[in-house]
Each structure stands twice: as C-alpha cells, then as structure tokens.
Amino acid sequence: MTVSAPRRDGVSDPVRSPDRRSVLAAALGFCALGAVAAGAAVVSPDDRRLETERVTAEQAGVAGLIARGKTETKRPAVLILPDVDGLTPHREDVARRLAVAGFLVLAVETPPADGDEALGRAVAYLAHHLESKGDVGVFGFGAGADGALRLAALTQVKAVVAYDGRGSEAVAERAEAPLQLHYAGLDDAVTATIPAFKKALEAEEKTFELFLYEGAAHGFEDADKPEAYARRPAELAWDRAIAFLESRLGTAPPVR
Fold it and tell me: What is the secondary structure of 160-184 as a DSSP string?
C-alpha cells in the first residue's frame, strides 16, 4: 500500500526527472509543462505534430476527441472525463497536452446517457486501439472525476487522476487502480468528503496519493475560468499528474 497524507499547496517533492521535464517543456514550447495563462491554449488545435479526430459513440463507446502524435507507435492511453460543462476548449487543450507528452488520448464530449457502461466501452476501445500499449489511465474533473473513481474498478484501468472527485466507501472497496486525488481547498462541499474517503481507502489498503491545494477554488486548473484559475497550483497538480500517469502506464517518446 502506498499512501500520501494530504499535501498543502506550496509543499512539493521533485516528482519528475529534470531531463524528462525539460524535454516535455521544450516540446510544448513553454518553460514549464503546466504553465498557461487564463483562457490561453498550451497546444494549438492545429498543431502539426498531432493527429486529432472526432469519434462517435458507435466507434468508441462515447462521442469525443481523439488526440495522438502523428508518428505511429504504441502509446500509453488516457481517457479524459470532463466536468458537467463537457468538452470545453480547455479540456480539448488538456487532451492535446497529454498527446504531446506521448499519450493516446480520448476526451469524452459529454457525460454519456448510459453512464458507466458507456465509459467501460470507451476504456475497452482505448485498450484495444492499434496504437495503445493496452493499459489505460483515466483523468477526471469534477463530476467526471466521480466517474473516473468508479472506473478504477475495471481491470484495464491502471491509474486514475481525479480533480475534486467525491469518493465513497463503495468506491474504495472496489478500486483496483492506484489513485491520485487533487482537491481544491475552497471547495467545501467536496473537501467535506475527504476524511471518510481517505479512511475507507486506508482501511481497504488501497494505493493512493492525496493533495489539497489551500486557497484554490473548484476548477482551479481550468484556464477557461479566470475567476477560479490559479496558475501555481494548476502547474503543480499537472506535473504531479503526468509523473503519476507515466509511473503507472509507462512512457512514450514526446511528440516532436
């Protein structure tokens, strides 16, 4: 069992090797991997290094956006589950950023009508994609983080990153994948659920990391929401998330 006690914004360990971080930062064209001004895209929608395409629920289990590098190679795969506002420009940018970092990405358009069943089909789609290494990570935000935590019970899911996700004893009991949990300190409704969820995870001896960002509001990582976006915790959470996904899913060469 690996457990991290809640960490406070401003206290961090080196979570990435300098070489890997420098390579990814150069690939993104920024001095810091997670750096982005409110409302700005890190990776352009027409970035020539990437292939992007829309897929339907009939194709992929869910309607959404596929993003990956143009070079054909086996990649770790990530499913993005957005909050209730769906696949906003910022969430599309998150998909492209993950693709530049070497992942095969499927970002869900909107929460599917048939819920977890459809999301399970999306996980299977990524696991069996021709360019997938087979293991899948899930990256969820808000309501999407709730779904991501539930998907941790699937055998093909090997890592879950959840921003402001509401866990439960049932989620803790069923989770098989390691979890990385990020919480906004000012999101009282969600942070109130942390103690019971943490206790349940510990009782079930599950592998998880938990980070609390003091002074951050719900959506602190969302560059489309200048009223909530907080650059420093957003960068810190992003670096932690990338390092976690790479440690659990493996790496692919950054897109150049």
Answer: EEEES----HHHHHH--S-EEEEEE
In this model, does residue 155 exceed pLDDT 80?
A: yes
3 state DSSP class of 49:
coil
Q: Read off the pTM.
A: 0.86
Token pair belonging to 87: 């696949």
User: Is the distance from CB of 136 to CB of 78 less than 8 angstroms?
Assistant: yes
Burial (0-12, 13-18, 19+ Cβ within 10 Å), 188: exposed
Name the E strands within 102-237.
Answer: 104-108, 132-141, 157-163, 179-184, 208-213
Tokens representing residue 99 in the block: 């693709």
- Are 147 and 167 in contact, with CB atoms under 8 Å apart? no
- Dist. CA 217–CA 184, nearest whole Å: 5
Work out the number of other CB atoms within 10 angstroms of the CB of residue 168.
15
Average pLDDT, the chain: 87
Contact 115, 88 (CB under 8 A): no
Q: What pLDDT does 30 receive?
A: 39
